[in-house]
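Deliverable D2.4 — example input (structure tokens):
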């Protein structure tokens, strides 16, 4: 299993917009560089990208939750 860490502290979002579906669901393929979420810092949104390929297992951080740099956001198999 591979975990995708937060690149910086902020608020983590699993969706591109509040009413949209999450970027990834269990069983989805994930490619290197693919966006799996967003981190908001002072009204600026930074894409969280996968650094390795795999199959999406789950989000480890809740949607709209505060996270610290290095915190695990999602897990790949």
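Example output (designed residues):
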């Amino acid at each position: 299993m591979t975990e995708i860490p937060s690149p910086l502290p902020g608020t983590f979002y699993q969706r591109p917009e509040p009413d949209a579906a999450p970027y990834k669901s269990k069983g989805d393929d994930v490619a290197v560089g693919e966006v799996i979420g967003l981190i908001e810092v002072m009204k600026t949104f930074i894409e969280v990208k996968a650094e390795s390929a795999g199959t999406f297992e789950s989000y480890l951080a809740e949607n709209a939750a505060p996270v610290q740099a290095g915190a695990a956001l999602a897990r790949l198999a």
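The chain has a mean pLDDT of 96.
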